[in-house]
């Protein structure tokens, strides 16, 4: 999926920095809008990548469609509304931001006339942001998908997700090492790309430009 030439690696860097930084910013902004001052107090309401990057998660994105940043700390007890709904909204904000970034990249890719360098950067903006959205929506703690699922499930079913918390990181590691995560992510990315991002981006891009 990824080009490991110098040009390919360099082209991925902007996509990684933007995708990870705005993903975490979206989490923090959503929590802040719901009344939690924790992200602002800890300096996470910024798009500065240096405030958000995790070294291992960033390196992973250079070689595979899997990666992560430092999680934004939030306090659900300081948010308006129910804890379950608030945490679901905060969790969903990160992947939603990545989908919007992928869509914006598609608009520019189909609408602008640029050189091969710009096209390569926009292609990686598409791929990396879609991979971040799909990967983080896997329903495995501590990923965003587990919190979104907990918010959608009735309380009587949500209790079964609790025991997964202590084993979530191990399950996630095994899923990555065995290739199961990528086996799920690939088809989901294609569905999102060809079913929504590419056709909508093409339509908007040709209309605007």
TrEMBL record:
Q: Write out the entry's keywords from A to Z.
A: Cell membrane, Hydrolase, Membrane, Metal-binding, Metalloprotease, Protease, Transmembrane, Transmembrane helix, Zinc
**One GO term (biological process):** proteolysis
Among InterPro entries, the record links this protein to: Metallopeptidase_M50B, Peptidase_M50, Rip2-like
**Which is an annotated Pfam family here?**
Peptidase_M50
Q: What is the lineage of its organism?
A: Bacteria, Bacillati, Bacillota, Clostridia, Eubacteriales
User: What domain of life?
Assistant: Bacteria
Cofactor(s) required, per the database record: Zn(2+)
Q: What is its main location?
A: membrane
Please state what the protein is called: Zn-dependent protease
């Amino acid at each position: 999926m990824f080009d490991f030439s110098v040009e390919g690696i360099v082209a991925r860097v902007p996509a990684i920095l933007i995708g990870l930084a705005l993903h975490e910013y979206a989490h923090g902004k959503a929590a802040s809008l719901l009344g939690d001052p924790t992200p602002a107090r800890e300096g996470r309401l910024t798009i500065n990548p240096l405030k958000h990057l995790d070294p291992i998660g960033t390196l992973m994105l250079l070689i595979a469609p899997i990666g992560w940043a430092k999680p934004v700390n939030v306090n659900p007890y300081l948010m308006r509304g129910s804890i379950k709904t608030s945490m679901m909204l905060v969790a969903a904000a990160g992947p939603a931001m990545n989908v919007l970034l992928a869509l914006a990249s598609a608009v520019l890719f189909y609408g602008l006339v640029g050189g091969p360098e710009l096209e390569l950067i926009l292609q990686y903006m598409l791929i990396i942001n879609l991979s971040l959205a799909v990967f983080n929506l896997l329903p495995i703690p501590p990923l965003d998908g587990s919190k979104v699922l907990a918010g959608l499930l009735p309380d009587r079913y949500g209790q079964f997700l609790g025991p997964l918390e202590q084993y979530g990181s191990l399950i996630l590691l095994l899923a990555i090492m065995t290739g199961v995560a990528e086996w799920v992510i690939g088809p989901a990315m294609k569905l999102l790309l060809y079913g929504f991002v590419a056709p909508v981006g093409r339509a908007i891009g040709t209309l605007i430009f």
